[in-house]
Design goal:
Oligomer: single chain
Distance between the termini: 27 Å
CATH topology of the largest domain: TIM Barrel
CATH superfamily of the largest domain: Glycosidases
CATH class of the largest domain: Alpha Beta
Number of helices: 18
Shape: globular
Helix content: 25-40%
Number of domains: 3
Largest sheet: 10 strands, mixed
Length: 705
């Protein structure tokens, strides 16, 4: 595999650079400070449309010429944006039909950003014209290293319900279904007298007196993701045609965005002259701890890329858009950035280079903060630049994972529809929670679509797979038949690709594979919990109690559950005619019913967890199942320490050790710390809130099985 950004040697470092916000005499100071910090790549003109095209068709590039030339003279490469994420006021004023309309019929106005209907042909024509002008002018500029299309697609305008969108939606549906009979069947329009007799009657799921048709809502979300993607592909193809050899990307938001089907986006962002990039911002009020949030977002970005990717944006400290914007304590800036690098990023870029003096993001942290260079942030920015230079040899190494966590965006969307059994069954959050449980156990995991290639994984977990199409069903069945270990969470396999309930027995797509039958759902009231107990501990001499490959016996399961295992949100009246019952409910509405089952006669073990255990219990269960499947933590776990390995095809490996605790920690490992030059023989000491990156000694990575 070649270098991700061919014109940048080593790991990329920098961020969004917005010199148009500052007097021109500041620009040379910026370049000098960038060199001091070790910056080698900056993103320019993300929101530059207004000054690049101040009037229709009147393009002005004199300032951008000087910016590009100045950065080149300073030895800094440029990721040049197409500036199409935020049309200027003159455009929106002249073309009000391009402004988005919400589900209540209100046309939103300009004055912030992304005031765009994604289906607007007028917007697309103007965006492509600007993209073409930029490509023709700068395709051979020596500073140009990367193209950045748009910015954070669907961050603020995921859906538009205007007449233009309605017409585009009908066209999309006609291509998908062919005729109205197929559409009516897919959406179940016989219910509530919703049958369509003319395509003109079909609308987006605008505001209605009560619940909208779930199939209609699901397809509109599919359509909207595809419309945004079509805009990206259109700009990308212009850049490929006019500036061949320069990679193209756009910044995804894997940790928080569920409005786009990123698997479809990943397919369009991988291949020749393109790459996956990602933005990530820690959410202060998220139920997961910040390092777990980072791990999920980075692992998903890596999975979309199929290998190394690029961190396009994150923050040096506080952001500006949360109710409470928490600053990062000393050391976290460096640790957060290197956590992304550990999980496959080929660098660390920020929003933004210099803090803005005006506008909505003036209190968003930056590499050069309002406090200037006499600040904690600047000192850590400079230190991080040195670290990234020291880690240059890591470039191209791949992060290792033997576990896959399944994520299907259509399933997440379908489960978000109204009138579900419980509003507390939030699919994306549960997927993140299971990933975090593996992370706490020291296990690195990929994300994967349920119809993807799963053969290389020892363990596949499906925390929330409410919707399953036939391809996914066949894929999971084949994975288990080939000996893989599968763990499925509750409320899975119930509906088909159109959000129609599958025929009995439930869960229709998984009943036979798991050897279970769900008779009835028993969701719990808000705050309600139930206790879980092992189904029984037979005589240790009984052969059925001896664990096999991927098969902890009942005694082991009892140990994993512990004496105080609880679950919340969800229970089911479950029968297990073709599976072992390993845990039951001790109380609650289905006391005595199976809560955890395992089928072992279909190939590999297929587990079903019919409830949502507390975090500690979930962690013990997944760690135990993983161990039985032959999955080991990267190093023996140490509380507060995150360990991730990247490896080159030639066998050179790098162990990232990140100490999130307030005390020094010792980890069993051997190698030379690339950040300090110190050699560690058998044990590495990691400072409190610090990072050690070992170029591991040959033969010490514990890979023998």
């Amino acid at each position: 595999m070649g270098r991700l950004v061919p014109k940048v040697s080593g790991l990329s470092y920098g961020g969004d650079y917005n010199p148009e916000q500052w007097p021109e005499e500041v620009w040379p100071q910026d370049v000098a400070l960038m060199r001091e910090a070790g910056v080698n790549l900056v993103t320019v003109a993300v929101f530059g449309w207004a000054w690049l095209e101040p009037a229709p068709g009147a393009y002005t590039f004199d300032r951008l010429d000087r910016i590009m030339d100045g950065l080149h003279a300073g030895g800094i490469r440029v990721c040049l944006a197409t500036a199409t994420a935020s049309p200027p006021p003159w455009f929106s004023y002249a073309h009000p039909e391009t402004l988005p309309v919400d589900a209540d019929g209100r046309r939103l106005t300009y004055g912030s950003r992304q005031a765009i209907c994604p289906s607007s042909p007028v917007y697309r024509q103007a965006a492509l014209a600007l993209t073409e002008q930029l490509a023709r002018r700068y395709h051979d500029h020596p500073a140009l290293a990367l193209w950045h299309v748009h910015n954070e697609y669907a961050c603020h305008n995921a859906y538009c319900y205007c007449d233009t969108s309605a017409a585009a939606f009908r066209d999309w549906l006609q291509r998908r279904y062919g005729d109205l009979d197929a559409l009516n069947a897919a959406w179940g329009t016989a219910f509530w007298s919703q049958t369509y007799t003319d395509w003109a009657q079909v609308q987006p799921p605008r505001a209605t007196p009560t619940s909208k048709n779930p199939g209609q809502v699901l397809d509109f979300r599919r359509f909207s993701s595809a419309e945004h993607l079509a805009n990206f592909v259109a700009e990308r193809d212009v850049l490929h045609a006019l500036a061949p050899g320069i990679p193209v990307t756009t910044n995804l938001m894997t940790g928080s965005c569920v409005d786009l089907d990123y698997w479809a986006w990943g397919r369009e962002m991988t291949g020749p002259d393109r790459l996956v990039s990602n933005d990530h911002y820690i959410l202060a009020e998220h139920p997961l701890e910040p390092p777990a949030q980072i791990a999920f977002a980075a692992d998903l970005a890596r999975s979309l890329a199929g290998g190394p990717w690029l961190l396009m944006e994150h923050s040096t400290s506080a952001v500006n858009w949360q109710p409470r914007n928490l600053a990062k304590p000393p050391g976290q800036l460096i640790r957060d950035s290197l956590a992304h690098v550990a999980r496959g990023s080929e660098g660390a870029l920020y929003f933004q280079w210099r803090a803005s003096r005006a506008g909505s993001e003036k209190w968003h942290s930056a590499m050069v903060p309002h406090a200037g260079t006499e600040s904690k942030i600047w000192r850590e920015v400079v230190t991080l630049g040195g670290h990234l230079r020291a880690l240059a040899e890591v470039e191209g190494a791949r992060t290792e994972a033997e576990v896959a966590v399944l994520l299907d965006y259509a399933s997440v969307w379908a489960q978000e529809a109204p009138n579900q059994p419980s509003v507390d069954m939030v699919a994306f959050a549960e997927i993140q929670r299971w990933h975090a449980a593996l992370w706490r156990a020291g296990i690195t995991a990929d994300l994967a679509p349920p119809d993807g290639d799963l053969g290389r994984y020892r363990l596949v977990v499906a925390p929330a797979l409410y919707l399953m199409d036939d391809d996914a069903t066949a894929n999971l069945t084949g994975y288990v038949a080939a000996g893989g270990t599968l763990v499925v969470g509750p409320y899975s396999g119930l509906v088909d690709a159109y959000d129609r309930v599958r025929p009995a027995p439930l869960p229709g797509a998984l009943a036979d594979l798991l050897g279970i039958r769900v008779e009835e759902f028993f969701p719990l009231p808000a705050g309600g919990t139930v206790r879980l107990v092992a189904a029984g501990v037979p005589d240790p001499a009984d052969a059925t109690d001896r664990p096999g490959a991927g098969r902890p016996g009942p005694t082991e399961v009892a140990g994993l559950l512990g004496a105080d295992a609880t679950a919340a949100v969800w229970t089911e009246q479950l029968a297990a005619p073709g599976a072992e019952v390993l845990a039951r409910y001790a109380d609650g509405p289905v006391a005595g019913a199976p809560a955890l089952t395992r089928r072992t006669d279909a190939g590999g073990p297929a587990w079903y967890l019919g409830t949502r255990p507390d975090d500690a219990t979930l962690g013990r269960l997944l760690a135990g199942i993983a161990a039985a499947a032959g999955v080991r933590p990267v190093v023996p776990p140490v509380p507060g320490v995150e360990a991730v390995r990247r490896r080159h095809p030639d066998g050179r490996s790098y162990l990232f050790l990140l100490n999130h605790g307030d005390q020094p920690a010792e980890v069993a490992a051997a190698g030379t710390d690339l950040l300090t030059g110190d050699h560690h023989a058998g044990s590495a000491r990691i400072p409190a809130r610090g990072v050690v990156v070992l170029a591991e000694d040959a033969g010490t990575t514990g890979d023998g099985r």
